[in-house]
Amino acid sequence: MDWGMKNRLAQLIQPDGHCFFLPIDHGYFQGPTRKLEKPGETVKPLLPYCDALFVTRGVLRSCIDPTNSKPIILRVSGGTSMVGKDLAHEGVTTSVREAIRLNAAAVGVSIFVGSDYEHETLMNLANLVNECEDYGIPVMAVTAVGKELEKREARYLALCCRIAAELGARVVKTYWCEDFDKVVNGCPVPVVMAGGPKCETELEVFEFVYDGMQKGAIGVNLGRNVWQNDHPVAMARALRAIIHENATAKEAYDLFNSLKGSGQ
Fold this sequence. Notes:
- Helix content is 42%, strand content 15%.
- The chain has twelve helices and ten strands.
- Helix 9 runs antiparallel to helix 12 and helix 11 packs antiparallel against helix 12 (249-261).
- The longest helix has 17 residues, at 118-134.
């Protein structure tokens, strides 16, 4: 691995080997998502607690302060919407040259394994890796499921993650699921967690994050569970305690409640 690739990965993955990525890229297919109508205002109080932002070039340019930011993972796939026919019909929307211009530490692209557009999205990943490797830019593959939430199970996600790694992704983002160790153990590159099943309480979020970390994930890429919470700073600080301070789910929940009580 050359110096540039090592340096960019070191910006994202902290010295303890863990990471807390904060995605605010949801608008690329959802539009003005609840509590993300003004992304710059949403993310500002959360920046001290995350390790990187996952964001599109448009929001990065218009909403994120370039003098006070975190490393950027640039969302480079898209071209579909919630009201369109198929969320899986994505293309690469942003060039590697643009990623370099924006000083991105990494780029992220979705793959839709098992969909009608499996081949196209896997080739999006492969072609992006081919180009990004020339410039020392890591590619994060996102194992997306579109609207088919029932795909969030270990056998399917293990398949997706392994394929992403085989095609050259340096990091894979996937959903937490039951038997998550089966997903991680079959993937030879670092795995970060997106959300799992819909959680009714903060404790449920802390429990799946803790479980995933114990089973080999290096961290999380959680957005809505943080900034849609009524106490987003408390949520971010509690998640950081699990990821970087070895807190249990119960300890994180206690921290969340104490911070919530103090108005954070």
